[in-house]
Design goal:
Keywords: DNA-binding, Transcription, Transcription regulation. The protein is of the alpha+beta class. The chain contains 5 helices and 6 strands, in the order H-H-H-E-E-H-H-E-E-E-E. It folds into 2 domains: 61 residues, Arc Repressor Mutant, subunit A; 51 residues, no CATH class. The strands form 3 sheets. It has a two-stranded antiparallel sheet. It has a two-stranded antiparallel ribbon with strand order 3-4. Strands 5-6 form a two-stranded antiparallel sheet. A hairpin with a 2-residue loop joins strand 3 and strand 4. Helix 1 crosses helix 2. The longest helix is centred in the middle third of the chain and has 14 residues. The chain is globular, with a radius of gyration of 18 Å.
């Protein structure tokens, strides 16, 4: 969440996935203040989520790295969630081979849908339990 959990990062990734790679396009379509957008783009590049490529002297386009491309399932799931819970009519229709996308998370080992049941949580960070940091 530290890398992409702010207000603008996922919107930036969405725009780049749509093919809007230039600063002016990203600014227009996200509504991000230009100074914050510049800082966020710089951070996303520094953290390996975006790649900055010059297309003209002192002008750049942004591309998703492999790490950035792995945000795609998250964005599709958030879009579906928003379509169901936040709007009356979806502002964007996403289709896959001619049908509306219905994203789900599936375990790659057993093939079952992951819906919250059957999960076991094991903290792996030193000094942490499910209740938070150890006192």
């Amino acid at each position: 969440m530290e890398l992409v959990g702010d207000r603008w990062s996922l919107l930036v990734a969405r725009e780049i996935m749509f093919g809007n790679r230039r600063f002016s396009q990203i600014a227009r379509n996200t509504g991000a203040p230009r100074d914050r957008l510049a800082a966020r783009l710089k951070s996303l590049v520094a953290n390996g989520i975006l790649e900055k490529r010059e297309y003209q002297a002192t002008r750049f386009e942004y591309y998703l790295t492999e790490a950035g491309k792995e945000l795609f399932p998250l964005l599709i799931s958030l879009l579906a969630w928003g379509d169901r819970w936040a709007v009356g009519e979806p502002p964007m229709i996403v289709e896959h081979h001619g049908h509306r996308v219905q994203p789900t998370t599936v375990c790659s080992v057993c093939g079952e849908a992951i819906d919250g049941r059957g999960l076991h949580w094991t903290p792996n960070a030193p000094g942490w339990s499910l209740a938070g940091p150890d006192a």
